[in-house]
């Protein structure tokens, strides 16, 4: 009997962002619909996360920052840094999002890979939010796995076009969680944190150069770290159609990127949790199709 690809999704991923958003957040509603329309997954693949508990969030985030977030008492400067007006529904969205990633970790342990239809909120650091990220779902997930003794050596592979500065900030002194960010050098955030390994990319990089660099560094990271769990931030803002990305990857190149990551994990029997990260192409179909392709490749590699 085949395993079932499990995917976290909650209506709250969409609704708090409907008014006043700057980017095409509609993708969080369209991705599940398109996955089912194309027959990539079935309705029973999706599970509904719960509100993450404060004590779990504080495994990765500063307790005072978390309390101010929960109380809606962040100062105006921090709210501007985050970029969204602070509201109860927005905070609850982040709590559902974090729990979705944690639950997906457990499903990945069972099935090899599991997804969150949102997440990849990698600009949130230990004591700050930034760039539309309030809490760092994969950082909390990684800290949770280590705290619970589920994993001893965790690798976070961040291939969003923007550096995972918040994730790097959280794990800057960690000997258990290793952060790898391959990102546009001249893109946001303009003041970078130091990851375990940073690979800054020049504007306009194309498929073959990008993929060769990725293979080179994955070879080194998997050999040296020997992780027992992987988080993959699979942003599709690397596409040449992206308004903010400044790179020149084709849809095929982005697909080959995803397949490379999944094969590295699958061939070594290392569970991987996937959060979707950014995507800001002019046409929503380009964003949704690229994200759906990530799921399709996982289904093919893992044989769901």
From TrEMBL:
<dbReference type="InterPro" id="IPR023696">
    <property type="entry name" value="Ureohydrolase_dom_sf"/>
</dbReference>
<comment type="similarity">
    <text>Belongs to the histone deacetylase family.</text>
</comment>
<dbReference type="InterPro" id="IPR000286">
    <property type="entry name" value="HDACs"/>
</dbReference>
<dbReference type="GO" id="GO:0040029">
    <property type="term" value="P:epigenetic regulation of gene expression"/>
</dbReference>
<dbReference type="InterPro" id="IPR037138">
    <property type="entry name" value="His_deacetylse_dom_sf"/>
</dbReference>
<dbReference type="InterPro" id="IPR044150">
    <property type="entry name" value="HDAC_classIV"/>
</dbReference>
<feature type="domain" description="Histone deacetylase">
    <location>
        <begin position="27"/>
        <end position="293"/>
    </location>
</feature>
<keyword id="KW-0378">Hydrolase</keyword>
<dbReference type="InterPro" id="IPR023801">
    <property type="entry name" value="His_deacetylse_dom"/>
</dbReference>
<dbReference type="GO" id="GO:0016787">
    <property type="term" value="F:hydrolase activity"/>
</dbReference>
<protein>
    <submittedName>
        <fullName>Acetoin utilization deacetylase AcuC</fullName>
    </submittedName>
</protein>
<dbReference type="GO" id="GO:0004407">
    <property type="term" value="F:histone deacetylase activity"/>
</dbReference>
<dbReference type="Pfam" id="PF00850">
    <property type="entry name" value="Hist_deacetyl"/>
</dbReference>
């Amino acid at each position: 009997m085949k395993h079932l690809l499990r995917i976290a999704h909650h209506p709250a991923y969409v609704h708090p962002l409907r008014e006043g958003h700057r980017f095409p957040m509609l993708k969080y509603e369209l991705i599940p619909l398109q996955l089912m329309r194309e027959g990539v997954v079935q309705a029973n693949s999706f599970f509904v996360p719960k509100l993450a508990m404060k004590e779990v969030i504080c495994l990765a985030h500063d307790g005072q920052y978390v309390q101010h977030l929960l109380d809606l008492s962040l100062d105006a400067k921090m709210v501007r840094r985050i970029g969204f007006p602070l509201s109860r529904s927005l905070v609850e969205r982040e709590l559902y999002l974090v729990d979705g990633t944690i639950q997906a970790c457990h499903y990945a342990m069972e099935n090899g890979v599991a997804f969150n239809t949102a997440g990849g909120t990698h600009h949130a650091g230990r004591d700050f939010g930034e760039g539309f990220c309030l809490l760092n779902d994969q950082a909390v997930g990684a800290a949770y796995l280590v705290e619970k003794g589920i994993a001893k050596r965790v690798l976070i592979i961040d291939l969003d076009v923007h550096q995972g500065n918040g994730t790097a900030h959280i794990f800057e002194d960690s000997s258990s969680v290793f952060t790898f960010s391959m990102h546009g050098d001249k893109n946001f955030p303009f003041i970078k944190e130091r990851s375990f390994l940073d690979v800054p990319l020049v504007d306009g990089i194309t498929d073959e150069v990008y993929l060769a660099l990725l293979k080179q560094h994955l070879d080194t990271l998997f050999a040296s770290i020997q992780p027992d769990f992987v988080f993959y931030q699979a942003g599709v803002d690397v596409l040449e159609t992206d308004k903010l990305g400044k790179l020149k990857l084709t849809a095929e190149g982005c697909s080959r990127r995803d397949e490379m990551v999944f094969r590295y994990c699958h061939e070594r029997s290392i569970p991987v949790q996937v959060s979707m990260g950014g995507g800001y192409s002019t046409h929503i179909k380009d964003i949704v199709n690229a994200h759906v392709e990530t799921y399709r490749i996982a289904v093919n590699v893992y044989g769901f």
